[in-house]
Amino acid sequence: MTRKTPKSPQEKKALSYANDCRNTYGESDKASRKAIPARKAGENRQSRRKAAQALGDLKALDEAGLDLAESSLRHDVERVGGWRKAPDEPLSAFLKVQAKRRSWRDLPPSRTRDPRDA
Q: Per-domain residue ranges for the chain?
C-alpha cells in the first residue's frame, strides 16, 4: 500500500474552502431540517395520487391508452423534473459575501452603498 503524502495546513484550508458548503437558500437552516423532508414527502404523495388516478381511469381507455398509461406508470414519468433542493454554496463564495456585508456595515453614515455591488 502506498502512503498518502501529508498536506500542509494551507492545502488543507484550500480543500476545506472548496469542499465545505453553506445553505444560502434564505430560510433558517433549522427549518430546512423539517422543510426538505416535508417537501419530498409531498412530492411522493402527489406522485402516488396521480398514479392512483391513472389506474382508476384504465377502464375507460382503449388498448393504446392502456399501453401508454402502463408505460408512464412503470417509468415513473410523473416524477421527472420534480422538486429539488437548491444546492448549497461553496464556503469560499459564502465567505466573500459575508466579507462584503461586513465591510459595508463599518461605513460611516454619510456614505451610501453602491447599488451595483449588491
A: 25-100
Pairwise CA distance, residues 58 & 41, whole Å: 26
Q: What is the pLDDT of residue 113?
A: 62
Letter string b/e over residues 38-68, b meaning 16 or more CB atoms within 10 A of that residue's CB: eeeeeeeeeeeeebeebeeeeeeeeeeeeee
State the pTM of this model: 0.53
Between CA 91 and CA 19 the distance in angstroms is 8
25: which residues sit within 8 A by CB, 6+ positions away?
32, 86
